[in-house]
TrEMBL record, chains A, B:
The lineage of its organism: Bacteria, Pseudomonadati, Bacteroidota, Flavobacteriia, Flavobacteriales. Residues 266-375 form the Acyl-CoA oxidase/dehydrogenase middle domain. Residues 411-560 form the Acyl-CoA oxidase C-alpha1 domain. Transmembrane segments: none annotated. Belongs to the acyl-CoA oxidase family. This is Acyl-CoA dehydrogenase.
């Protein structure tokens, strides 16, 4: 092309044929554009039209040539930011062309281009903010690890060193029998190290250290989760049921053999027809006056004990929950020790055991069903701490209500609802370690002309992983708090602590479910390969939301507890009282819900930990008060209370959720207040801010409905969440390194590239 | 107790010792209450206090006796609704007691009781609305099935009858080799039935029926998902790449052998280092002028082909995507047929194959890695529909841009993004069938004195499953629409259809992920047992969100397409123009966003399909316009376009999401309009209403931010969602029966109780 004004149309040609896929209609738009240039001669028009005729594409070489010319222009002059700017530069400032600026702008629009994006494709070395961010640790990782481990550091380190030994190398077989035996062997090794009996009294060989026992459960969870569950079934469920529900004679007879794993056993509560509603169990233990014994009986197939860990292969005895029957009268659910097989593996007479078969995960645990066809056990096998049959064959108990006795018994077993969420927490930490380390190394896409960038630099990837990282830190401190409350419990506090445990169990296990799902997807195809361990982490923890209490059912219990606390602290439901309840005092009410506060968006306010906690508390109390009012109104309107509670079930989940979120944030903030190292503190504060604002963003519909925030504020919060993700990204790898999970446990090749 | 006024305190004694767990503090409250009754003699007080002394519990018999007395009162007089009412009835209207009403009300509050709930526990047969709802089908199931199957009913029924045969009995081994071979055998049987070549031209033995091919994929997905993926790899990816990218010589040579499964093959695109960014593939195909051949080479281990289905065991050839190099010049990614092993299983010279090993799911598919150490293939093995090397050794193509050519090639393979979401849809239908049938039969808890009730009667359970059921119906019609658009496509529409396919692939596979997660949890422990099949459904479909394009990346593509459409239809971004765009015309704007509309909550309005669609359209357009404005502003403010697009990634997901939700609702409504049977129509309308309102509820934060709705309306919508769940519940079983999934495929024992 020797004609400058024709030369100037190169950008148009190039765009027509290059990366952006123009449709036939858009080619027509280009044609019309050229035909409208009446200042061009007919010949010139024809020439231009021939260059953009669909039937006559340029050669690949022509295209490359055009591209080089355009690159030269863009790279020479940084003020070139639109297609017209390129045209102008190529035209030698032809007057006719200069007049065409509006036409070219319209053309850009008609074709759906963003001029700046097109231009950036011609820049040689596109450096960008997105490509420059990278891992850059701002604090001492070991100091943070020390804060996380706290007083349990010695036992945590001991467990880590044991599970890093070669005999704990992962078993990768798909043969369930091999896997189950391997897990059993691991448990034996752990028992030898006196880890199983950690919580038992010293007189039975135990460590008498419940805090350490929980730390053992959590740390073992970095390794194999079948191992943790098998370990928990043996030493926690089986052993602690004998300890908590039995008396000295049982402790002396069984505890040290349980703690050493000489006597493997089961915890047989759940039945096929009764899982959540354990009060409705149908297995019976009928007292025989003549022989001073009990007959254990499974009435029908649907009443068999189900999912019982240790039952299919290894268990020799079981704590069986059954309705005690004396002289035909039902005395409610009690617990009995029933032998199910001998040490050689022969199944006891009258006992039928079946294997639950393959499961979604935890296939290293031998779950089975148990049924009892008139199995006779001696009287002393009744775990008789809370109820017994006296020498005359009469029922005796310090707790007259069958129901209350049963819940008191269950209350002694609440430790399981601490061990499980802490195990779930460890699994979430493992998943995040794998996904974040991979995201820091894995490169995909990048600016034109630049190299590919780590996927953790992408906003979506940050949004997918970093709020989960913040939540995991929050839950860590929340579970520490739960553990401490449990260890220091008084009788008076038990109901509250039971509700807290039920709630944190749900909150942590659901969080882990969501986190591992996101980790799997964030690792793409690599996340699907079993070698990268998200498979096992995800499928093994999948049932955590179900066992030790179905989460949805537990959340209803938590909400009912909150409701009953609410009724106690605040019986009369007049509006002023509720406002006082929600805002604690009227002064806060005014300052929180006035038009200035609801529209306040300055950074200092949005990042203020007091604002966060107040917003969480406000939500917690308002949702609770509203639920109480709704139930009252439904019943006043004539609904049966049972129906009324069904109607508000969905609301009740919010009551529990809001409570658990407040607990988590509060404990996160309290923990941070004690941190002395400044760099660690600054980082943890950012995480707590991200946790708080991410939850508020999630609940923004509610805050807007309540008028607690206006749109300008919720939008500012969304922006701040993005900013915090961006700010935390350089520390993300250090923050998972601080979990200090043994490399042999992480194992995933993608975490070590 | 012979004294009536003391007798009247029985409710207090009973409450102290019965089911409700009073704490020590609350016992104190009771003590204080009694001590404050100055009208009682000291002796009387002592007597009462002795009954509620913690150290002196009543006997179990006393407790039972009290209970019987209270039951008598409550059952005799239905006006008894508080603890005080019971006291009154027991007191013979003692004047002193009658004055105590406020005190007793306060006591109820102090103890945290809800009087009505306590009373309802004494009612003998508590019948309630919750316990009375049950399955009660309102329409002809076969008629609904006919609507779902449409014109594909014959092929669907044919496939169902084949996969119900005994040779398709599920393989339950954990031995991967056995499973893979079984899946391969199944594929051979399907090939014999001419199902594999369904989409190929008749001249190569095919059925030339793409619509039927998609129906085959979807229906096979009721059976084993490894089977579907193996089938799809062979006949879809491998066969269709030869068909779509090759020319007559390739079709003649390969197609009929591929269709009969005599020639198993692979589709080798993804590399370890390049999954989403396929444009960056590193494998090379270098042209050798002297021998007129290509040398296929894997530069480094990180560039090996990865996750390739059929590669580890069965594949004999592969369509390999590689950069074409002629005389040292790179001509972009092209496709080549490369033999990888012979019919006896001997791996070809220069080819290295490794097994990807165990995966989270789809273990019946033999995924492997492929690398090529200077493997030489003849010139004719280049799939040369879009590019070729001529006799002179020069590159030729009708599409000059390498990039554009590559995306044109990819465009021909868009069928995979229809087959996968339809397979995901089938898996969701299977999961919902199992979970809903189980929930209809599984009983747990119930009103005091009544029997346990089906868990599907609980509001939370309805909320967990029924909106998913509604969404599944919506997606069914959305995918029918996608299929029809694809079948009737013109060149002009291809970009839109590609974006639609990418979007619906993400929307459907994410929906299936969420649905199967909820189904697993909703089935509790039973859902964790592999025999109930949610395990396989969930783990097999887990990677659907990753393969055929990572969902998060695809959503960005969809949003970019929407943005470019937006720019075309609406280049100048002044405010009036945007309002016109968002509301289509000013008249609607006024009627939709005025204070009456934003606060309108009457039932007719909330259930109005026009309101639903307008709300979806408003969201779609507003979110899109806002994204366009934001990007423009960021770039105007000096941000690199690459950074600007990173900043808005999260917003872009919303753009795509809102578009897909609108498409789904719109197609759902259009499909309903053609239904003739009134009973079916009424039911589908309820489902569409539930789908619409549930999405609006989910997005309520946005609607409130925008002022499109006020709190009074979003709250009314939440209530309506609950009501719709309740109304649909009796038809829930019929609605999954209408999917008409073969019983042998459902297989889960819990679905057949």
């Amino acid at each position: 092309m020797n004609n400058a004004k024709l030369h100037a149309f190169i950008p148009v040609f190039y765009l027509a044929w290059s990366d952006d896929l123009l449709t036939q209609k858009e080619f027509q738009t280009l044609n019309d554009f050229i035909k409208n240039q009446s200042w061009l001669s007919e010949e010139e028009q024809s020439f231009l039209l021939s260059k953009i005729a669909i039937s006559n594409p340029p050669s690949r070489e022509d295209l490359n040539h055009w591209k080089l010319e355009l690159e030269k222009i863009v790279q020479k002059d940084s003020s070139v930011t639109s297609i017209f700017d390129m045209v102008k530069a190529l035209s030698n400032n032809d007057v006719n062309l200069l007049k065409l600026q509006p036409d070219f702008m319209k053309l850009e629009n008609d074709l759906g281009f963003l001029g700046e994006e097109v231009i950036s494709n011609f820049k040689k070395t596109a450096s960008s903010i997105t490509s420059e961010t990278q891992t850059n640790t701002s604090f001492d990782i070991a100091k943070l690890t020390a804060i996380l481990d706290g007083a349990q550091a010695p036992i945590i380190n001991k467990v880590k060193s044991i599970i890093s030994q070669p005999e704990f190398a992962y078993e990768t077989t798909t043969d369930v029998t091999v896997y189950r035996n391997k897990v059993y062997e691991w448990c034996q090794i752990l028992a030898k190290h006196n880890l199983g009996n950690m919580a038992y009294p010293k007189q039975y060989g135990g460590g008498e250290n419940i805090a350490d026992y929980f730390a053992v459960m959590e740390t073992l969870s970095y390794h194999d989760l079948s191992l943790v569950i098998k370990f928990g079934v043996q030493f926690g469920l089986w052993g602690m049921s004998v300890f908590s529900l039995g008396t000295a004679k049982h402790h002396e007879k069984y505890l040290s053999a349980i703690g050493s794993l000489e006597l493997p056993g089961c915890f047989a509560m759940t039945e096929t027809r009764h899982g959540s509603n354990v009060k409705g169990l149908e297995t019976t233990a009928t007292y025989n006056h003549d022989t001073k014994s009990f007959t254990i009986k499974t009435p029908t197939k649907d009443d068999q004990k189900e999912y019982i860990g240790n039952a299919a292969i290894h268990g020799q005895m079981a704590t069986v929950f059954a309705k005690l029957i004396i002289n035909g009268q039902d005395y409610g659910v009690n617990a009995f020790i029933v032998p199910i097989r001998d040490a050689k593996g022969n199944v006891a007479k009258g006992v039928a055991i079946a294997d639950c078969g393959l499961k979604m995960g935890l296939n290293g645990v031998d779950n089975g069903t148990l049924s009892f066809d008139a199995v006779v056990i001696p009287k002393e096998n009744m775990l008789d701490r809370f109820a017994s049959v006296n020498e005359k064959g009469e029922f005796e108990s310090p707790i007259p209500s069958d129901n209350r006795r049963f819940f008191t018994m269950l209350g002694t077993l609440v430790g399981g609802r601490i061990g499980i969420p802490r195990s779930a927490l460890a699994a979430a930490k493992s998943g995040l370690t794998i996904a974040i380390k991979y995201a820091d190394q894995r490169r995909q896409f990048g600016p034109q002309g630049g190299s590919e960038i780590p996927i953790l630099n992408y906003r979506m990837h940050q949004r997918r992983l970093l709020p989960h990282l913040a939540k995991t830190y929050g839950i860590h401190f929340g579970l520490q708090y739960l553990t401490n409350r449990f260890l220091a419990r008084t009788e008076e506090e038990m109901q509250e602590i039971e509700a807290l445990a039920a709630g944190m169990k749900s909150y942590s296990t659901w969080s882990t479910r969501d986190i591992l799902q996101e980790c799997r997807e964030a690792c793409g195809g690599k996340g699907y390969l079993s070698e990268n361990r998200i498979d096992a982490l995800k499928n093994d923890t999948e049932v955590y939301t179900t066992f030790e209490g179905d989460n949805t059912v537990l959340m209803q219990l938590v909400a009912k507890n909150r409701l009953s606390e609410f009724r106690k602290s605040f019986g009369e439901m007049n509006s002023l009282g509720i406002i006082n309840y929600v805002f604690e005092n009227a002064k806060t009410a005014v300052s929180e819900k006035n038009p200035i506060a609801t529209r306040k968006t300055d950074e200092a306010h949005l990042l203020d930990s007091e604002f966060h906690l107040q917003a969480f508390q406000y939500r917690e109390k308002s949702v609770l008060a509203a639920a109480a009012r709704r139930i009252k109104k439904l019943i006043d309107d004539g609904l049966d209370p049972y129906d009324a509670f069904n109607v508000v079930q969905h609301h009740m989940i919010d009551v529990a959720q809001a409570y658990l979120e407040r607990i988590t944030l509060e404990q996160f903030q309290i923990a941070i207040a004690t941190v002395e190292d400044e760099a660690v503190k600054v980082t943890l504060i950012k995480l707590a801010q991200l946790y708080a604002l991410f939850q508020i963003e999630k609940n923004k519909g509610w805050y807007l409905e309540e008028g607690y925030m206006e749109a300008v504020k919720t939008k500012a919060i969304r922006k701040m969440v993005n900013q915090l993700c961006w700010d935390i990204r350089p520390d993300a790898v250090a923050l998972v390194d601080a979990f200090a999970i043994p490399e042999s446990c992480i194992a995933a090749p993608i975490a070590f590239q």
